[in-house]
Structures are given as C-alpha cells and as structure tokens.
Amino acid sequence: MTQPAGPIPPLLLVGCGQMGSAMLAGWLADGLAPSVILDRHRADGPAPHRIVRQAADLPDDFTPALIVLATKPQKAAAVIPDIARFARRAPVLSVMAGKTVGGLAASLADAGAPGAVVIRAMPNTPAAIGQGMTVCYAPPAATEAERALCGRVLSAVGDTAWVEHEEQMDAVTAVSGSGPAYVFLLAELMEQAAVAQGLPPDLARRIARRTVSGAGALMEQSGVDAAELRRRVTSPGGTTQQALAVLMEPEAWPAAMDAAIRAATLRAHELAS
Ligand SMILES: NC(=O)c1ccc[n+]([C@@H]2O[C@H](COP(=O)([O-])OP(=O)(O)OC[C@H]3O[C@@H](n4cnc5c(N)ncnc54)[C@H](OP(=O)(O)O)[C@@H]3O)[C@@H](O)[C@H]2O)c1
Distance, CA 237 to ligand 1 centroid (Å)? Predict the structure, then answer.
C-alpha cells in the first residue's frame, strides 16, 4: 500500500514506555503535528507536544487524528474509559500484544464509544532506530483511509505489512514481535562459545555482536535469500560446513526454532483468549 506523504497528523499516544517512546522517536524525526502524550512517568517532552501524566489532564478540546494505545495489555482496562471520549471521533491503533480488535472495541463501547474503529499492530523494538518491522490487522469495518493513516504512522519507524486474518497476529508476535530476543540470544551464545574456545571476553563480545549486526545488515542491503547467503559462506570441507553440520541436524536448530516459534504462537493465542 502506498503511504500518504507529508507530516504525521496529531496523535494521542497513550503509554510512552519502551515501545511508545521508540515509536515517538521515529515520529518526531518524521515531522509530528502537535500531539498529546499520556504517561505517568514522563515529566516533559519536546515542544509543541503536550505531556500529561494522568487522564484527568487530557485536554477536552484536543482532536487527534489517531489514538495509539501502547500500554501493557493488563493496563488497558484502566485506561480505556479515560480515552473513550476521543475514540468517538478518531480511530484507535493498538500495539498491545494479544488484545483483540473485537475485545478492545467492546471495551470502548462499554466505556461510551460504540462503533469505535480499532486497528491492531505488532511492532518490534528496532523501531527505536527506525528499523522496526510492524505487522497490522484491520477489521473489515476500517476504511481504506484509516488503514492508510495507520500505515503512514507506522512507516515512520520501519517496514510495515498487513495480515488478512487476525489469528495470524499470533505467529507474527512469535516471529517479529519476540524475534529480536532470539537474535540477541544468538549473540550471547556466540560470545559464550568464543570465550569457551579461549578468546578474551572483550574480544568475544565484540566479534559476536559485530557478526550478528553485520550479517543482518548484509542480508538487508543485498536482498539475497538467507539460505543463499549462508551457502556463499560455506566452502566444501571448510570450518563453516563443520559448524553447520552440527546446527542443521534436524534435531538441532530446525527443531528448536520450530518448537520455539510454536510455543510463542501458542502463548500469544492464550493471551488473546
Ligand atoms: N517492548 C516490546 O518489545 C514490544 C513489542 C511489541 C509490542 N509491544 C507492546 O507494547 C505495549 C507497551 O509495552 P512497553 O514495553 O512499552 O510497556 P511499558 O514500558 O510499561 O510502557 C507503558 C507506559 O504507559 C504507562 N501507563 C500505563 N497506564 C497508564 C495510565 N492509565 N496513565 C498514565 N500512564 C500509564 C506505564 O506506566 P506504569 O508502568 O506505571 O503502568 C508505562 O510508562 C505492550 O502492550 C506490548 O504488548 C511491546
């Protein structure tokens, strides 16, 4: 979908912790119209944006183009009644893991915003440096303009994609939402293994980190399939082939990754129900 150009329209950002502030950094860099940020821990913010620490201080006359819900899922019930009045006139973009469009719309209706449009998105933390991957789901009731608005706002923090079926958000959560943690684990394990082979800890840390980030950047910039890039590093009978023979044993990484993604997908499903 082509994203509309131009500045990002006024937003009401509800929750500005890890994910909210990552997104906010991208929006500020991309030209954000005067917006309101609700977070009890933020003392100030860049002008002309307004920071409020409690819902009671939200300005009644503020008309956001979009409400971005970025609190922990368990805090949603507390915050929804406070923002329902804005959801009568603006769509809601939720980045909360596991909270369904139907469940949030029902809570908003109970709080006095019947028919509120809710679009769901799963970003990830590389959004903090504009390298995020966000996958979105919009219910049939959402208009093309509402989808485009969410796409515009999210494209400020990285790449965006859409799924047609909300259940697919569970696997998305398991792969791209949680995925940065798997990559960080890879760096950790490579570092530990390097130390076990006798390298000084500082050097082990440096080469493990740089290898993970450099390989990711090469994959991104080349656009070449991961499997082909792997083959290009693998000479017959060489060191890489020895290592890959261990890692690619069906019971090793293929089984572990499959089980890990399955477990995370199942957990995302449980959280949604
Ligand atoms: N972190 C990730 O990697 C990631 C990835 C994808 C999606 N997400 C989603 O992003 C959402 C936010 O996660 P996070 O890690 O950014 O959470 P977080 O760091 O806890 O940020 C939420 C912020 O909102 C504040 N807040 C909550 N309710 C409030 C209220 N009623 N009034 C004022 N402030 C309030 C919280 O304060 P308190 O702490 O005092 O409640 C906190 O400062 C989650 O739903 C998560 O599923 C996160």
Answer: 50
